[in-house]
């Protein structure tokens, strides 16, 4: 998809990422019973860490030059992890998310993990397909519980 750009965000992009994260958290609010703060925002604590810690990377996803989403990546115990991944609704089911995810995985060779809440069925299906296509094989998730909630953890390798 040559009209798709995944650009590493710089600190000057902080406000843009924070605004996109508001849409992301809003989408999750019906699944997680999240409450908006008194400021009228959900806020995303820790966003500034993506410019102060070397094992964190923030990306803006653009389609045809327009903002389409974001990806936040972190390295935890020598494993790359998709911390947050969001594509605006207008760009969903058009290949944007899958191509952006593959681009991110390709930039960081090594072991990867993608965590998905089981009750988020559309995301679970998306990650199953995207990871299988990237890895060239089906990747079985590991079922686990985090704070009493069912999650699926996908582990795979990127050769870069």
TrEMBL record:
Pfam families: Acetyltransf_1. It comes from Granulicella aggregans. The keyword Transferase applies. Gene3D superfamilies: 3.40.630.30. Residues 18-160 form the N-acetyltransferase domain. Transmembrane segments: none annotated. InterPro entries: Acyl_CoA_acyltransferase, GNAT_dom. This is Putative acetyltransferase.
């Amino acid at each position: 998809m040559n009209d798709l750009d995944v650009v590493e965000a710089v600190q000057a992009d902080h406000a843009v990422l924070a605004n996109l994260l508001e849409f992301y958290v809003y989408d999750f609010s019906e699944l997680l019973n999240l409450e908006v703060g008194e400021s009228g925002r959900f806020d995303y604590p820790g966003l500034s860490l993506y410019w102060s810690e070397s094992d964190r990377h923030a990306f803006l996803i653009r389609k045809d030059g327009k903002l389409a989403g974001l990806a936040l990546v972190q390295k935890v115990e020598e494993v790359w992890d998709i911390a947050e991944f969001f594509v605006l609704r207008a760009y969903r089911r058009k290949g944007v998310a899958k191509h952006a995810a593959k681009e991110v995985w390709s930039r960081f060779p090594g072991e990867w993990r993608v965590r998905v809440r089981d009750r988020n069925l559309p995301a679970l299906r998306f990650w199953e397909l995207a990871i299988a296509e990237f890895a060239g094989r089906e990747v079985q998730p590991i079922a686990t519980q985090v704070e009493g909630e069912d999650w699926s953890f996908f582990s795979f390798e990127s050769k870069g």
